[in-house]
Design a protein that fits this description.
The chain is globular, with a radius of gyration of 22 Å. The strands form 2 sheets. The protein has a two-stranded antiparallel ribbon with strand order 1-2. A two-stranded antiparallel ribbon has the order 3-4. The protein has 3 domains: about 1-75; about 90-365, no CATH class; about 370-418, no CATH class. Strand 1 and strand 2 form a beta hairpin. It is built from 20 helices and 4 strands. The chain is mostly helical. The model has no long low-confidence stretch (mean pLDDT about 95).
Length: about 425
Amino acid sequence: MKCYYSYLPATFIYHDLTFEYVDSTMRQNYFWETAANGARVQKVSMGMAILYSPFFFIGHAQAYLTGETMDGWSVPYQFWLGISSIFYCILGLWLSSRILTRFFSSGAVALSILAIGLASNLFYYTTVEGMLGHAYSLCLFSLMLELTIRFYQKPSWRITAFIGLLAGLCVLVRPSNIIIVIIPALWGVTNWQSAKHRFLFWWQRIPKIILMVALALLVYFPQFAYWKYVTGNWLFYSYGHERFYFNNPHILSTFVSFRKGLFIYTPIIIFAFAGFFFLKKYVQTGFTTIVIYTVVAIYMVSSWWCWWYGGSYSLRAYIESFALWIFPLAAFFEVCIKALKKKAWLMFLFVFIFIVHNSFQLYQYRTSLLHWDSMTFDAWKNIQFKTDFPKDRNKHLRAPEYEKAVLGLEEEGKPIEP
């Protein structure tokens, strides 16, 4: 998404964080809010730009060496930005595999990585719309898990600092990522007694808490400075009228709605939720953390005014949670492998079927057969196993009523004109 990336060319090429330069270029499809002083304020925070930056500079150097246009948008920049999402996705899955091997067999780990990497919507948001940032956030969440486990093995100042920096970066990438603090706060808490011990643990290490908070704020400071520079205020809400409606979450819709339900369009995740029944047996130290995180994440995601998250493939806002949901998914596969014994190879066939399904569905989405935001049960039923458009396709679609949703009003969709 260009708005995430825009900070980099604006800073290092055009030297204009007011974005006035776009008036004389073709790069005008940004999203921004207008501050009280009339300034343009980029809607999204700059965390993604920080993660893009190593690849931006590689692309910038390549453009210089090869004589390509050094405008931040030519082929070298686009190529290396595409590589960045693949890099962070692979790094995140590699970190997940390292963590999972502490609790599960190699077979369950391999199945889980294949399922999340190729049979879920993560694949689309790594290869096609990678710049939206979900693969990057999954990587950061996986890294937080790794650091947290190491911290409770040896609570050093170095790991404390890394956790603080990482927490700040996560929130800078997506403000809703603030729920990542649940991981270091609760990992290892298994009952009320351990919760009391955890409270005492942190009470005795208040300086470490101060360091974490200070470093998190330090990472976020460039965003404060940007708002101050363009608006005159240290804080600015850049999402305009968009907001959470915590009194009206659409929990079931995010999972089973044919408009965008995760279970409908990323069905492999159903087995992750089935795995919650077996999770405590394998990951006792993280069971409470994963359950509490899941409840909070579902409530937060489903409370956003646009619970279907615009034109997108499946429910993309849950992808960050895959870093934790891969644990119950691995528990599900572990149980199946033990039950099947010598026929455990059938589980790889099982995952392969979901990979094929995901690939075919992605083809339907890329050809607009699977509509980006207006699907219904009848529309979904009419495109199953098809690669061409049914003659009566549009009559089954229902366009979301965005103008109602942003006000917190219920909407059921409206017919699309033929």
